[in-house]
Amino acid sequence: MEKQAFKGVPIQNNAEVQALFGQSDAFLKMIEEDFDVRVVLKSDSIAVFGENQKQIDKVVAVLESLLHRIRKGEAIQATDVNYEIRASESEEPSIINHSPAESIPVFSKRGVIRPKTAGQKRYVEAIKHNDLVFGIGPAGTGKTYLAMAMAVSALKNGQVSRIILTRPAVEAGERLGFLPGDIAAKVDPYLRPLYDALYDMMPPDALDKYIERNIIEVAPIAFMRGRTLNNSFVVLDEAQNATIEQMKMFLTRLGFDSKAVITGDITQTDLPTHKVSGLADAQSVLNGIKGIEFIYFSKVDVVRHELVQRIIEAYEQSTPPDVKQVLANAENTEG
Q1: Taking residues 238-260, what's their average pLDDT?
Q2: Exposed site from 35, 79, 180, 242, fewest CB < 10 Å?
Q3: What's the CA gap between 29 and 68, in Å, rounded?
């Protein structure tokens, strides 16, 4: 039998051990099963035993990263444990290897909002320091939610006087007139996810007043035509469904003292096959322009149920070669 190796991780008190291991040791079991190691609690440390030193080192890195979060006051959840495991396996630098992730001064129903992954940290920093940011990557990486949190924060801090949230209503098209109700009722299903996120971040009464006074506006991208958006924080969501013409129209709406964030996943466009996605086109047209930054998320940044990452991996295996080449070029450009 191969001799087991071990490595220790210092601990400060029992409270942080309880937070680290999770209820009924749920987080500990996740780590042990994923890496095939045994973790033992000692008087002043946590010892990691195993037959593979590389695996032991990875587990130690995961534990240290989670402890770092706990000591900053974060409440660790299963998604955090899953992220640290994925980051160690993919050699993606953990968020603690960057400068500490500051919280966004906006509270959701689940508490303070802060970047949970290294990719999210880069994204939030990019939004702070650029007037135009593209967030591109798979579902579940927090692209839209974090952009909206930054918008709400900017409004509350007086950095902008209004928020404008928009999406393409791709499937509406010629069928829009056949749907019941006025124009608001017709496009509401396409915009509902944006409203849901807003209600998660703001009291309903306050949000309704903002919407009534047009301080917060949620509208289809077609409503942006002919406008100049001054002193605004603008978020274009699901941008992979915008045509080249729509994307150009939207980008040229940006006015003085405004900021825009564009989010999307170029692998999930709903446009007709003969239409080129405005988001994919913008990558090549706008790359390298000062004041514009592209942030690319990967499956490592997924903060939803762990099944979401597995689903993304499965679809990546069946992605057409031309789309894979676009994604590879984008990652190389970012690097």
Answers
A1: 94
A2: 180
A3: 20
C-alpha span between 220 and 191 (Å, rounded): 7
Angle (CA) 105-106-107 rounded to 5° is 125
Where do we find the tokens 């918008």?
Answer: 151
Three-class SS of the chain: CCCCEEEEEECCCHHHHHHHHCHHHHHHHHHHHHHCCEEEECCCEEEEEECCHHHHHHHHHHHHHHHHHHHCCCCCCHHHHHHHHHHHHHCCCCHHHCCCCCCEEEEECCEEECCCCHHHHHHHHHHHHCCEEEEECCCCCCHHHHHHHHHHHHHHCCCCCEEEEEECCCCCHHHHHHCCCCHHHHHHHHHHHHHHHHHHHCCHHHHHHHHHCCCEEEEEHHHHCCCCECCEEEEECCHHHCEHHHHHHHHCCECCCCEEEEEECCCCCCCCCCCCEHHHHHHHHHCCCCCEEEEECCHHHCCCCHHHHHHHHHHHHCCCHHHHHHHHHHHHHHC
The torsion angles phi and psi of 162, rounded to 5 degrees, stand at -160, 160
pLDDT of 163 reads 96
The position carrying tokens 């692998």 is 267
Compute φ and ψ for 129, nearest 5 degrees: -110, 5
- If one compares 97 and 236, the residue with the highest pLDDT of the two is 236
CA distance 143 to 309: 15
Do 153 and 146 form a contact (C-beta atoms < 8 A)? no
Q: How do 132-136 and 259-264 pair as beta strands?
A: parallel
Give dist(CA 174, CA 206) in Å, integer.
35
| Torsion sign (Cα): 119, 124, 127, 130 | negative
**Confidence bin at 305 (pLDDT 50/70/90):** low
Rounded Cα distance, 144 and 146, in Å: 6
Q: What is the pTM of this model?
A: 0.75
6-20, 99-113, 177-191: segment of lowest average pLDDT? 177-191
